[in-house]
Specification:
- It is found in: Endoplasmic reticulum; Golgi apparatus.
- Pathway: Protein modification; protein glycosylation.
- This protein is an alpha/beta fold.
- The chain is 35% helix and 15% strand.
- It contains 14 helices and 14 strands.
- A seven-stranded mixed sheet has the order 3-2-1-11-5-10-6. Strands 13-12-14 form a three-stranded parallel sheet.
- Helix 3 (53-72) links the parallel strand 1 (40-45) and strand 2.
- The radius of gyration is 23 Å and the shape is globular.
- It binds guanosine-5'-triphosphate and 2-acetamido-2-deoxy-beta-D-glucopyranose (3 copies).
Length: 427
């Protein structure tokens, strides 16, 4: 332990807190990392660049599941958290939004109670440098499903798309690597994969023996068991960072007359102890709205309402549920926002100052919006938006009656307006 402390100190890299503690207080077993009896290996991953924040959160669940499978069968795998950044929707001007560690958005201790995870910078320190032994670029099968029959399979195949990595003079591969320019890969190959995340386990255990492996285009893999116990364990462990929850709670108290005690939404810092009964949460005296616009309206989708249509629905829900306040989370642009304010002057929004935005970043603001929507007495979201889906899950964790959660706006002329599915937590 002292040796690894010396190593991270001399490299002038961030020493994991646990390491500092275990050296300072060796008698406190609590802070000591678990004894690692097997070969330590690292799983890294990345996702197709255009994918948004909330789909990426979903891919994390798939990767955590794969790591659990791997750990059951021998080696001591650790999941390396891919730094956030360069997201298509995160375009607040003049703020630096790459190389953001997960700790800015999520509680690391909560994630770690589910599966061993480390930040990318910690990986660099432990690994002795920014080198990844093997990158596997996942892709589908060039021939599609043969005979129209679905089967699970994984094979080494020539790359179908142009490789997003190029060899440098020393023969290393350079690529995006979350904006860490100094990162290099020793080897990059393409693998066609069709199936659930854990089909990669035999490949990672048998075909590959190097220490660090990165799966690029990890969204190619499907959930091992969507909405099963394992899915929910990981989802529940994705607790928002405390500072974001506090800002959301302060906002609720100040503008929405909403506090956990009165609303029956008391949250346990330890997610493994959180098991709220469905219907036990009451929520704050306001309507929560997620109104996804931008690319959702550019395509003139039938299932997305006009602003007028949305406001009509909002008014009717407020009346029905006797709520005189409404909180709106939206990605609407300036023009639309103006129109919305005209149509719904009483709406409450979380609008950070420039300084706050610099601290919280677009991701932090999105989380605060989700947190406030998650605490509303009644929620309505946008059809097939992963942003809305993550709010559903958060409300499920808090113990809301499903009737107050699984609601969405209908398009103005939509005939069959199917409502979102209720996914129950498996504890
Ligand atoms: N603050 C805030 N940001 C939003 C809101 N709606 C969308 N966004 C932003 O737009 C992004 C796109 O929504 P996401 O749901 O994350 O994107 P996605 O994963 O592609 O999923 P879809 O919504 O299904 O497109 C979010 O990550 C936010 O950055 C909102 O209500 N509030
Ligand atoms: C893994 O190794 C097995 C046995 O050598 C081989 O048949 C298979 O094609 C390999 N799979 C991949 C994805 O490399
Ligand atoms: C690159 O990785 C592939 C797949 O693991 C392996 O077959 C190949 O030998 C490696 N190439 C080099 C140069 O190490
Ligand atoms: C806040 O809510 C409480 C009880 O739910 C109520 O008694 C109080 O009048 C409310 N305050 C405001 C300012 O609306």
């Amino acid at each position: 332990t002292t040796a690894s402390l010396m190593r991270c100190l001399t490299l002038l890299l961030l020493c994991p807190l646990s390491l500092l503690f275990s050296v300072a207080f060796p008698h406190l077993r609590f802070f000591q990392p678990p004894v690692r009896s097997h070969h330590l290996r690292y799983l890294l991953y990345d996702v197709n660049p255009p994918e948004g924040f909330n789909l990426r959160r979903d891919v994390y669940i798939r990767m955590a599941s794969l790591v659990k499978t791997l750990r059951k069968e021998g080696d001591d795998w650790v999941l390396v958290l891919p730094p956030w950044g360069r997201l298509y929707h995160w375009h607040s001007p003049n703020i630096h939004q790459i190389r953001i560690p997960w700790g800015e958005f999520f509680s690391l201790t909560s994630l770690q109670a589910n599966v061993p995870v480390i930040e990318y910078e910690e990986f660099i320190a432990e690994n002795g440098g920014p080198f990844i032994d093997q990158v596997l670029v996942l892709q589908n099968y060039a021939e599609g499903w043969t005979d129209g029959k679905w089967e699970e399979k994984v094979d080494r195949r020539p790359c179908i798309d142009k490789l997003m990595y190029s060899k440098d003079k020393q023969g290393y591969y350079r690529g995006w690597f979350w904006g860490f320019e100094e990162t290099r890969a020793r080897n990059v190959t393409c693998v066609s994969a069709q199936g659930h995340a854990s089909i990669m386990a035999p490949v990672l255990q048998k075909n590959i023996t190097v220490t660090s492996v990165m799966l690029d285009r990890a969204e190619t893999l499907l959930h091992d068991h969507y909405a099963g116990k394992d899915y929910w364990d990981t989802r529940r462990s994705m607790v928002f960072a405390k500072h974001l929850r506090i800002i959301g709670d302060d906002f609720r108290a100040k503008y929405l007359n909403s506090t956990d005690d009165r609303d029956y939404t008391v949250y346990s810092e330890d997610w493994t102890r959180m098991k709220a009964k469905l219907g036990s949460a009451k929520g704050g005296p306001y309507l929560g709205v997620h109104l996804r616009r931008k690319d959702f309206i550019w395509g003139h989708r039938e299932d997305v309402p006009s602003l007028k249509g949305a406001v009509k629905k909002i008014r009717s829900l407020m009346k029905k549920h006797k709520l005189d306040r409404v909180f709106v989370a939206t990605d609407a642009d300036g023009e639309e926002l103006k129109e919305l304010k005209k149509l719904l002057p009483e709406m409450v929004r979380f609008e950070p100052s420039i300084e706050d935005l610099e601290l919280l970043k677009d991701g932090g603001v999105a989380i605060i919006d989700q947190w406030i929507c998650a605490h509303a007495r009644f929620f309505i979201g946008t059809s097939v938006s992963t942003f809305s889906f993550r709010i559903h899950e958060e409300r499920e964790v808090l113990g809301f009656d499903p009737k107050t959660t699984y609601n969405r706006f209908c398009g103005d002329t939509e005939k069959e307006c199917e409502q979102p599915t209720h996914w129950k937590i498996v504890y």
